[in-house]
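Minutes, project check-in

Agenda point 3 was the complex the collaborators sent over. CS summarized: two entities, 598 residues total, and the question is how they sit relative to each other. Sequences were read into the notes so everyone works from the same version.
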Amino acid sequence: MVLVLWCVVTLTFLLLRMAPGGPFDRERKIPEQIEKQLLARYELDGPLHRQYFGYLGDLLRGDLRLSTKYRDRSVNEILAQTLPVSFTLGAVAFLVAAFGGVWIGTGAAVRVHRPGDALRMFAALLAISVPTFVTGPLLILVFALGLGWFPVGGWGGLGSLVLPALTLAAPYVAYVARLTRTSMLEVLGQDYIRTARAKGLPERRVIYRHALKVGILPVVSFLGPLAAHLLTGSLVVESVFNLPGAGAFFVHSIQNRDGFLLGGVVIVYCVLLVGFNLLVDLAYTLLDRRIRLDG
Amino acid sequence: MGEIAPPVRGLARELWRRPRTRFASCVLLLLAAGALVGPMVLPEHYARPGAAAFLAPCAAHPFGTDLNGRDLLYRVLSGARVSLLVGLAGALVSLGVGTLYAMVAGYAGGRIDAAMMRLVDVLYSVPRLIFILIFINTFDAALKDRLVELGFPALAGWSRLVILILALGLIEWLTMARIVRGQVLALKQAPFVTAARALGQSHPQIVLRHLLPNLAGVILVYLTLTIPAVILDESFLSFLGLGIQAPQASWGLLLSDGAQVINPVRSYWWLLLFPAVTMSLALLAFNFLGDGLRDLLDPRSRR
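CS then shared the predicted structure for the full assembly.
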């Protein structure tokens, strides 16, 4: 886990320092003296390995350093302002994708090979095939401009969260639904389900208590990648809906060669994902007693 | 050859018989033909900026014109060239990497396999687009400079495309690797592999001559499913302004242009609608075809 983080930090650092052009290259060439001072201020002078270990040391102390583009603002500051927006959006979309997907997938599985199934699966395929930056403007057109139910963009209040979260979640609802359907079909054909039905349990109970308990496992193992996808997907959705999240800073930090800001975003994302994956692994073992954590 | 080899023969007929895959094949063939022929057949001035900006669809311009007065039909078709090329080439890169990785892992087995697949698990939960972005930004400029240095400034415009294909291919191989490795594990136990080993064939021989032909079906299925994923990723990058650069067009770029002119005062709906429909149709067709192929070829989904 620490190893993964270390790899990520190193890779990001090297890729950025290797690339031609420094963080202070602008249209107008700045005097050499000033550039030297700037580099020294950001501790980007001296041999590469010294820069690298200096950075690692600062990271360990929880200091993500100063942004080289937005002078005098520390990366910690920028992230503290923008990340809550991204995370709220991501978390809502995550819940929508997980619960909505399981619900739709189960619905399709119990209606297998009937119109209800075909309809759901076609909708799912459609949701996967339309990119979010098309769904976004379309939803804005209908629900914000046409019906006026929700604001067009911006941040504030629950209403402004509905459209972005739906947009972000749509393709993943579909993924989860497809996963759920496949695994539920397999589970529903097994003996213990027949036993449960033979005992005279009501169908709802058979499906939601007995079948779903096992059928949900592939979905649980998809939750880690799902979180990763949602975090990156939110870059696009934030720009469609003009949300003041971390996405814009991330894209700009690459274009501006703002290494420390970029590093900060990447590190925070990865810490969260790695931690989240650990949680998912634990949840998985709790749900399925057949798997032991000794591997 | 073992019994496990999926029925690749007569595949085309099988695909044509099912309405879904027939529809998908038709759409894709039409798009490919349009992408190849369209930009050559349409009048040349359609490609250049003209006076008539934001023209609604009419007889002369069936898809309307864009901000610079360029014909949108022309743009969509030349965008299809780039998007399909990126999708196909990126998927092929991912196929090469994924298959090689999976065959080594599956065939070696044991600890090597466990370690290699653990790495795949880790990579799965890393935000992928972020690394594509960094990768592109780092290597694009470097390759451009190198090309100019070596005296091929004309090729510099293509460097972004090449880097993009490489980056996307290097990101999208994970699913392929997982599936193929599963197949290799199953095939490894098959009697014909034991027989080949008993006859004294070397490991590379067994992998290439006996395993690979039996993997062809699965590989084909996931190749078809990777293409739309790559096209989608490319469109995200173009939307963020980090993919294909204007004046080259790709579907993602057209869509991002279209999405930007949606506003309450005056909406140029055709700029969003036509690229969106074309791209979604293509992605839908690829997914249909992939699902159809999977039903036919993937032994795991056959009951």
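Noted in discussion: The interface with chain A takes residues 114, 122, 124-130, 133-135, 137-139, 141-142, 145, 228, 232, 235-236, 239-242, 252, 255-256, 258-259, 262, 264, 267, 272, 276, 279-280, 283-284, 287-288, 291 of chain B (CB under 8 Å).
Follow-up: revisit at the next meeting once the mutant set is ready.
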